[in-house]
Amino acid sequence: MWNPESDPLIAARYSAEDMEGKRLCKEALLAELDLPQESRSHPLLAMITRLVPQKGLDLVREILDDLLALNVSLVILGTGEPEMERWLQEKAAQHPAKMRVVLAFDDPLAHRIEAGADIFSHAFPVRALRPQSDV
C-alpha cells in the first residue's frame, strides 16, 4: 500500500496531520513536467491508467475540452491503444500550459504523480466487454 509518510520516491513526506510535504510534492511535480508554477494555485488532476476506452478514456474524451477550460491542470501517465495515445498527445499539444501526457510505464513517476496531484483517478471501473445479443 502506498504511504506518503515513508515513500522514498517522492520529493517530500507528508501525512494527514502535516500536509506541508504535499505542497512540496506538487511543486516538484509541476517542475518535473514543465508545467507553469502558477498552476500551484489550481487543482492538479491526474490519471495513471491503461489508455483504453474500457478504463474510461472515452468518457475523458467527451469532457476534456470543457475540463481544460476550467482553472485546472491535468497529467496522464500510461500506455495503451495507439489511437488514444495520439489523441492525448494532440490534446496536450493544444494545451501546453495545462496538460501533460507521459506515454510510459514509470512506477517512480507514478508515485510522484500520486503524491503531487490534488485530484487523482487511478481506478476507472473496467467496463465489461459483453457480446452483443439479438435476443
**Order of helices and strands, N to C?**
HEHEHEHE
The CATH homologous superfamily of the domain at 36-121: Glycogen Phosphorylase B
Shape: globular
Q: Can you count the helices?
A: 4
CATH hierarchy: architecture of the domain at 36-121: 3-Layer(aba) Sandwich
| Largest sheet descriptor | 4 strands, parallel
What share of the residues does DSSP label as strand, in percent? Answer: 5-15%
Q: Whole-number average pLDDT?
A: 90
Let me know the number of strands. Answer: 4
Gyration radius from CA atoms, angstroms: 16 Å
Fraction of helical residues: 25-40%
CATH class of the domain at 36-121: Alpha Beta
Which fold does the CATH topology of the domain at 36-121 refer to? Rossmann fold
List low-pLDDT spans.
none
Major sheet strand order: 3-2-1-4
Structural class, by secondary structure, is alpha/beta
The end-to-end span amounts to 44 Å
Structural features, described:
With 135 residues, the protein is α/β, with parallel strands linked by helices. It has a domain of 86 residues: Rossmann fold (3-Layer(aba) Sandwich), CATH 3.40.50.2000. 36% of the residues lie in helices and 13% in strands. The chain is built from four helices and four strands, in the order αβαβαβαβ. The protein has a four-stranded parallel beta sheet. α3 links the parallel β2 and β3. α1 crosses α4. The protein is globular, with a radius of gyration of 16 Å. The relative contact order is 0.22.
